[in-house]
Amino acid sequence: LLAPYISLGIFMEVLKLWIKGCKVIVLDVPLLFEAKMDKWTKPIVVVWVDPDTQLQRLMARDRTSEEDARNRINAQMPLDIKRNNADIVINNTGTLDDLNEQVRKVLFEIKRPLNWTEFWLSRQGALSALVSVVVGVLIFRKVSW
């Protein structure tokens, strides 16, 4: 019931940050695919772990029974499906140092210079397009007078 309102709130916050000029905006959305929010986020980074490790870590973190942990895991889309739909996958089966190194590499990749398609979808590209249209309209009006 609340998903559309939550999605709208997230979208509005992202829009505000985009307008402010933020170059990287990170969303931590466990139900990204289920809520269909993957359609307007790029790149999609999934932190993946094998099912046994996921179960053990969840039980340890929440101090819960195996049955409760399995129920929580089974209530979500399997990580393997999310991994297949991701642009970038971080493998979280190793140590915390391994995870930190992978996150550093992903941030480096995400901050790289944009290709043309990415540029036109960025704040700078949108502003360039807007300025071009306004200048074109002004020139056209001046020429047609």
UniProtKB/TrEMBL annotation:
Keywords: ATP-binding, Nucleotide-binding. Gene3D superfamilies: P-loop containing nucleotide triphosphate hydrolases. Pathway: Cofactor biosynthesis; coenzyme A biosynthesis. GO terms for molecular function: ATP binding; dephospho-CoA kinase activity. Signal peptide: none annotated. CDD domains: DPCK. InterPro entries: Depp_CoAkinase, P-loop_NTPase. The keyword 4Fe-4S does not apply. It comes from the Eukaryota. The keyword Cytoplasm does not apply. GO terms for biological process: coenzyme A biosynthetic process. This is Dephospho-CoA kinase.
